[in-house]
Each structure stands twice: as structure tokens, then as C-alpha cells.
Design brief:
Distance between the termini: 37 Å
Number of domains: 1
Structural class: alpha/beta
CATH topology: Rossmann fold
Low-confidence stretches: 234-238
């Protein structure tokens, strides 16, 4: 069954944001797994329910889901290396995990260790979003701040995708509020919430279409970065 994070129904309160992120992950999968890379190992650090697994497996990748609980192929022990050889991953994935990680040196260091020299880190995290502990929630990033976090840990950004601009993410927060308020109404609450979320979905789509691209690029709800191991000095181009 397709994950709702990959193909969210349009009446969900967060459908627009999830759909835009799924589209960015799809583009990233095509970029880092071109034809002819069948069997390439992809390691998902903090996979959760692995909603994007199919995007990589359909391109012939060997997908390894890693998490702190038993749901993944490999269990993550914070501060400890995974039971995988250095340089064994063609791609390391991290989707909406970084804001929940306190020890960025360990987490990004492990991503760097696992990645082959010609491999790619595909990482998404929040620019602007509500507090959402799972079980903790430590950070938000500006575009510049996120790229500097990666640069100082040995990664050079190859591509940055800004997902959901400032007008649309203010509507997203309202959609979430109305969803919870309407769902509390007996009998008809969920229907009203679905109608409200659908209207906000359409509104967000229009707002992103009207927002100048440079505003979205520097004020996004989510940033997805494709990065490579640095081969030269510390300077970074974006």
C-alpha cells in the first residue's frame, strides 16, 4: 500500500506540504540513481515507516531502512556506528530527521562515513514549521544555516530544493488549527475538517504560484538538499 506521505489524499490538512515534499524526493531519487545504477545501496538514516522506499527500489536500489526502533532493517544506536562498512552506500537518505537529532556531529559524521566517494546525501529538514517532538524537536534552519551545517561536516551542496513558500506555510498552520478545531465537533466534524483542508490545499497551491521564487528559496517550510563529499576546500556553491 502506498504511504500517505508519498500520495496524501487532498482532504488531509497537510496534503499540500506532503505532496510537494514527495515531488522533491522523487526528483532527488531520479537525480542520484540514474539508469545503470541497479543494485546501488541506499541507506535511510531514520527511515520511520520508510514512506519513500518505493521511489528508490523502483530504480533498482538496495534500500536499507535504519531507525532507533526495531522497525528498520538496521537499528540505530545514537553515538555508535551502524553495522555497515565505510563507503558502502551510493546514497544516504535523511528525510525530516535532522531537526530531531541533538548530536549533529555524530549523525552527519555517520552519513559521511557510510557514503561512497561518488555517492550523494539526500537530506530534507524544516526551515519553518510548528514544534513536533518525535520524541524531541531541537532546531529549525535558514537555507544558509543548513548549508553551513553540512559544509562544516564535509559536504558540498549540489542542489537545494525549497518546498512550500512563506504565504503557503502560513496557510498550512491555519489549516492544521482548523482541522483540530473542526474534528472536535460531534458527528459532522470530520467532514467539515475535510472540506476546510481541501479549501486550504487549493489556497496554498495558488499562494505558491503567486509567490516570487526568490522568496520561496529563502523562506521555505522545508529544504531538500542533494550534497556530495567535499573534494576540495571548504567553500560551498549553492
Amino acid at each position: 500500500m502506498t504511504s500517505p506521505r508519498l500520495a496524501p489524499p487532498f482532504w488531509r490538512h497537510d496534503a499540500y506540504s506532503l505532496a510537494q515534499l514527495a515531488a522533491a524526493v522523487t526528483r532527488a531519487a531520479v537525480s542520484v540513481l540514474p539508469s545503470g545504477r541497479a543494485g546501488a545501496r541506499v541507506v535511510d538514516l531514520g527511515a520511520g515507516e520508510a514512506p519513500y522506499r518505493s521511489l528508490f527500489e523502483v530504480r533498482g536500489a538496495e534500500y536499507l531502512a535504519c531507525d532507533i526502533d526495531a522497525a528498520g532493517s538496521l537499528r540505530i544506536e545514537p553515538g555508535q556506528p551502524l553495522a555497515l562498512p565505510a563507503g558502502s552506500a551510493h546514497a544516504v537518505l535523511s528525510f525530516q530527521v535532522l531537526e530531531h537529532v541533538w548530536d549533529l556531529d555524530w549523525y552527519l559524521g555517520e552519513a559521511h562515513r557510510l557514503l561512497a566517494d561518488d555517492g550523494a546525501l539526500v537530506l530534507s529538514t524544516h526551515g519553518t514549521w510548528l514544534y513536533h517532538p518525535h520524541p524531541t524537536d531541537f532546531r529549525r534552519w535558514t537555507r544558509d544555516g543548513l548549508l553551513e551545517e553540512l559544509r562544516t561536516r564535509g559536504f558540498e551542496a549540489e542542489q537545494v530544493m525549497a518546498v512550500v513558500g512563506p504565504l503557503a506555510w502560513t496557510s498550512q498552520f491555519r489549516a492544521l488549527g482548523y482541522h483540530h478545531m473542526l474534528c472536535a465537533i460531534p458527528l459532522v466534524g470530520r467532514l467539515l475538517a475535510a472540506i476546510s483542508s481541501t479549501v486550504f490545499h487549493l489556497r496554498m497551491k495558488l499562494e505558491d504560484a503567486l509567490t516570487p521564487r526568490q522568496w520561496i528559496d529563502t523562506n521555505a517550510s522545508v529544504y531538500l538538499v542533494i550534497a556530495r563529499k567535499m573534494r576540495t576546500g571548504p567553500s560551498i556553491s549553492t
